[in-house]
Write the structure tokens for this entry.
Amino acid sequence: MTQPTPIIEFDHFTFQYYSQAEPTLVDINLKIYPGEKILIVGPSGSGKTTLGHCLNGLIPFYYKGSSQGSLKIKGQETKDLDIFQLSKIIGTVLQDSDGQFVGLTVGEDIAFAMENDCVPHDEMHERVARVAEMVGMDHLQTASPYELSGGQKQRTSLAGVLIDNVDILLFDEPLANLDPATGKIAIEIIDDIHKELKKTVLIIEHRLEDVLHREVDRVIVINEGRIIADMNAHELVCSDILIKNGIREPLYVTAMKYAGITLRPEMKPGHIWSLDTGTCNEALRRWNRSVVPPVPLDAAPSILRIQNLNFSYDGVRPILHNIDFDVHEGEMISIVGKNGAGKTTLSKIMCGFEKEDSGAVLYKGQDIASKSIKERAEFIGVVMQNPNQMISKNLIFDEVALGLRLRGVDEKEIKTRVEKVLDICGLAPFIEWPISALSYGQKKRVTIASILVLNPHILILDEPTAGQDYRHYTEIMEFLREINKTGITVILITHDMHLMLEYTPRAIVLSGGEMIADAAASVVLTDQHIIAEANLKETSLFHLAQLAGIPDGTQFVQNFIDYEREVGK
Amino acid sequence: MKAKLFSYNYEDTFIHRLSGFTKLICFLLLTFAVMFSYDIRVILGVLIFSAVLLKISKIRWSQIKLMVLYVLIFLVINALITFLFMPEQGVEIYGTRHPIVKLFGPYTLTQEQLFYQVTKFFKYSSVIPLGIIFLLTTNPTEFASSLNRVGVHYKAAYAFSLTLRYFPDIQRVYHDISQAQQARGLEMSGKAKIGERFKNSLMIVIPLIFSTLDRIEVITNAMDLRGFGKGKRRTWYTRAKMVQADFIAIAVSVVIFAITILISTFINHGRFYNPFI
């Protein structure tokens, strides 16, 4: 049998940005064959995104640098092609499905590439209709992006590149901004398109388990600019490559390791649906019985009470309806729900940015309706999702000192307080640094520090780990856990399921402005009704329990959480 | 949701259904007409006409309140300055002098000056509703495609339409940043001194610029990857077909334009209408 010709071929390919001292990609050798579905994983800064940019032509069209070696797509050197020629061979779907929505309606967005090719008006409409049908968006051609769900936006982006009949589809972190349920759908759409249209598919992602919801042919692990592994999913999860390279392994794999099971490729552990636990069910059950639940602590007194809260922006459509719950002192709690469920609005009401229509917010039993934004900030601090939206100074010290200076605290006290906070936040070595030299995670810390310096008792964080890889996620969350241990109550607005499982014992679930659950994370992530309402996804631990014949899946998940917390100590 | 300044919102009205090209042409014709003429009868006619159009297009007062306020302030300042620097402009134009009241120094209010300035005030005011209608009832892409059709390069047209389109988003981000900074103790009300307020507003504007730059990078990449800017021209998916209503609208505008010119040429024998002789 003759070997087919690769559609993509890296041969000793090295790339260095002009702005960097070291090459970002080093001696890459990789062949990808027509019709393959490849997953490229790696932590932030590993070079995986750069690899994608080299393929789609953004390098060197937009990002400049120098390369050595050869990169061929369909037998042509990419050096000899420009971004426009490449875009006819390889279609790219970017991670930000909002940001990449160029058109004002679905139809217009799908047509964007054709407009640039000067395709006549009538032909354009005809082709858009055809492609829209292919991705199941034919009934929504006139809808604007604001009317679409995350999954529909993904479908639209996909249609926008399929319109060119490209041979290769490149997905750059398709899951980054999606909630778990939408992410699952996105992976299914990609898989269906791959099967139906026989395209070559490349997925760049760090959320391995989510991509492995459907089959992939090979997984390429990349770190520090080099290819670390090129193997199938089963072999990969059996190895220690994932952990060594800062990529989260699937949760069920972690659970099996806790149970003392050695994974072998014959067990097909690459996907939860292919996993055969026949040989290790007993081990799993034994481990499940062995976990000792922690002694329940007495509930601390309430620090923040949301009482029969109602809110609406226009007085007609309620955004929040009868929300009622307690946050206890020293708790770390998450508020979850799909986009538009009212999570962010709720946090705005807590901080006084918006005013409730009826009901109350009680701080230590006192109604705080009369307190202004500034006054509330003395005890409730809020950290926005995007650190770039908070930082307004050049130097770390000034940024953190800002809140104190605005409050007229004297400069000597400011110095001691800022230094103390920077120390807690692990930023002391950078005190003289300009903020622009920091990484995203460090910037996030600066914003947290700039709030902590005001000594709040409650800290609210909006999606603190959005778009972060495993290492940064762990860094940020462990840091928050430390903060929490000093007695500060932490409220997290999130749809990250790992975060819920690993860090917040209790979750409040909002859906359509109603509170549909106030329960343990293990309950939230295994209850079908809540999962559907909040756009979550059943955790693979629950499936594992089913496979092993453990009847109480929720308890199994709880045991996993308890065990992990015990090991974590 | 709160109404946003400059944000296009779709309503199914006669005016919304007109093509962007038609609206641009009508806007240009009518604006040119009032800009050309200093005949208060013509100007008031156009003002009333555009007020009616505003009503038809179902634009809510809350959407345009701020814009109207700014323009009015500008007009009042403009009127004061005109009077301060050229108190006899009206006399020069109309060739007669009917003093009403002697003010201070060399300043005397004359009927001619008053008439001239009132005319000018209405002249500018009548453009506002037209501009508002055009901006708020035209979908930004159609807006770009119409600019392109009248000869503006498509890159410039697209840049303009993207700006319009992201304006509501940027306003929202501005609002969010401002709240977060207020929580840190930023005083945005009149309590702070002017200098302080200027410094404080920087604390919102700087993060706004940086987060906007991030967005621009994303959209630029998305556009490059789909071939934006490769050719000298491009076609437009959203290009409403010209229907009968469009031709009627253009015809009406042409007629108004022609009447203005005719009145100036044959009745007023100049751009000014002179009631004083």
Q: What stands out?
A: Chain A touches chain B through 61 residues (CB under 8 Å).
